[in-house]
Amino acid sequence: MPADIIFEIGTEEIPARFIPDALQKMKEQMAILLKNEMVSFQSVEAYGTPRRLALYVKGAAEKQDEKMVEVIGPAKSVAYDKDGKPTKAALGFAKGQGVDVSALKIKAADKGEYICATRKDGGKDTAEILKKMLPQFIMDMAFPKSMYWDDKKIRFARPIRWLMAIFNNTPVEFTIADVKSSNMSRGHRFMSPGAFIVNGIEDYIHQLEANYVIVNQAKRREMIVSQINQLAKEKSGQVMSDDELIDTVAFLVEYPAALCGDFDREYLKLPKEILINAMKEHQKYFSVVDKDGNLLPHFICIANTKAKD
Description:
The chain is an alpha+beta fold. The protein has three domains: 3-62 and 125-210; 66-122, no CATH class; 217-303, no CATH class. It has eight helices and 16 strands. The protein has helices spanning 19-36, 76-79, 88-97, 126-140, 201-210, 217-234, 243-250, 272-283, and strands spanning 3-11, 43-49, 52-60, 66-75, 105-109, 112-122, 160-167, 170-171, 175-176, 179-180, 184-186, 195-197, 238-239, 257-262, 286-289, 295-303. The strands form five sheets. The chain has a five-stranded antiparallel sheet, with helices on one face. Strands 13-15-16-14 form a four-stranded antiparallel sheet. A three-stranded antiparallel sheet has the order 4-6-5. A hairpin with a 2-residue loop joins strand 5 and strand 6 (112-122). Helix 6 packs across helix 7.
């Protein structure tokens, strides 16, 4: 019966610019690896925040697909002696393919006759495949810049602090960089730093939200857009449209909370392009304008924690 894979790499804060490309590559590579391992699945989704990169594989098979494979061995003249008895070459080939020597067949080819064996491949438990596949998956991940830590020979964008790997609601156990995988994730670093057990994708998303982590980047983006528009409206203005900045700040936070600030009107005497650029490039602030596009003395920023007041 199909089951789900939930895989989360918990880290120190990864630079926002690294995350979108990493998620796309993770999604693509996981699909390739599962297909190569003959593990059928329905879909792969990737989620990411500054502190975690996650994959959700829906409907993965519990076992590999099975297929019959024909393997060509040594020439017939080498495999059998003049009396037709199998030689060491035939016996070794049969053993290597996991078949009895009596099951070997002769196959004609352009350059003569060869022995061949037909064997059944696949059928391994997906959980066992993941135990070997996931550590290598992590080691093969590439970033614009990566680092070593704790005298380990593992490189990653930032130090790995926890690993969650679940298949069919059961932990997939492996260890990499002295971090052992489990069925536990963690909440927001400041607002809810504890660990919790995960039972399925809905539980994963629900518990993360309860612990102040919006793991789905699309939902974080929607929250940011809604919040900044509301704050700008309260200032009788509107946010200057900037999809690039929205995408950036969506990967700077795990739980977006928009805040509005003001600056001295004297600064409005400067060309608005200078102010807008300074707020965007240096502070990651959103500019607020009136209905005619004139800059107002307000800005909106996205914090990573909820304000208490």
